[in-house]
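dumping the sequnces here before i forget
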Amino acid sequence: MLESTEVEYITKLVISAMNDAKDAKKMAVPVGVSARHIHLKQEDVEKLFGPGYQLTKKKELMGGQWAANEQCTIVGLKLRAIENVRILGPVRKASQVEISATDARTLGVNAPLRQSGDLKGSAPIALVGPKGAIYLEEGCIVAARHIHMTPADAAATGLKDGDMVSVRVENERGASLDQVKIRVDESFSLEMHIDTDEANACQIRQGDVAYIV
Amino acid sequence: MLESTEVEYITKLVISAMNDAKDAKKMAVPVGVSARHIHLKQEDVEKLFGPGYQLTKKKELMGGQWAANEQCTIVGLKLRAIENVRILGPVRKASQVEISATDARTLGVNAPLRQSGDLKGSAPIALVGPKGAIYLEEGCIVAARHIHMTPADAAATGLKDGDMVSVRVENERGASLDQVKIRVDESFSLEMHIDTDEANACQIRQGDVAYIV
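..and the predicted 3d for all of it:
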């Protein structure tokens, strides 16, 4: 039999746990699967496609980004290549190649896991276009999983830019992914971004829903 | 203020939860990463490598299995090929090709998620060897994650053959993988088997440790 002080203590713990559970809002987030892709600065566009060349829009994506008609071949240190890698527009301040860990192995590139734009000390990679080739001393990364949301979404979930959360998917494979970074901006629509390894390992298809836990 | 009947009910729930928690032993399991591979029946070995041909051993694996020196090229319905796919010995009763979901996409094969040996209605695939080619009407699968353990391991964890568990890995990417099947046999050594997509998505390397949760 339990002492009454134990009962009281346990009851307090339970009430506290129930309140915590109420605070944790289980938010549904649509998932976007990012295939390997390239961001370029205008100078590099011209080196690869010719002087004065402008990327052309194929398909609108989220947050003002778009898939370009243009593609490149990327080549790693072991001289292995992956062909037809899609370029995304508009041009950026720095060129960046985002590949999966599977691609990194194929290419023989030691690409670190990074949030987009965090390129310092990332892996070197060569890009070949129809009018030229460039060698990036750094710029090749495996993109770290993240969730884009508006300030309103953030307010609704009690999350803020830079927070790390875990996300659950329920399907035949079933998994929880940790270390998912929250990124908040007015231009974003609510979407979790994962790469093709994560999508394949967790049997997630474009547009499936995951839950912040 | 809570009624005393509520306190009693909550207390019972808590005691039950505490007992459950005591039973759930957090067991550390080394992880083996399975690259795409092929199992063959002797008849198919001979079709691919010539009459009377015997697979030759390159490297011992777990549970009496070994990597053979022999490799094949596999070709999917879209006529896309993956070269140099390792064959594992010894020969089996049925030929089977285990690929990742990334490979399935590359090949254009609709390979189902299955435990090894469960081939009914699985995907068709062509195999090409130095002396011939075969077309399997079924036999191509994406291997479902599982844990091999001895009866002693099973007894220690309170698990039995066929149980499904979740497994946690803690690292820069961090994840929990659900739907992990327990397979118990005297010939097994304790090891969790995942494929290259799962390893890459969760940043797991051969020999890393995961925890049954």
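DSSP finds five helices and 14 strands in chain B.
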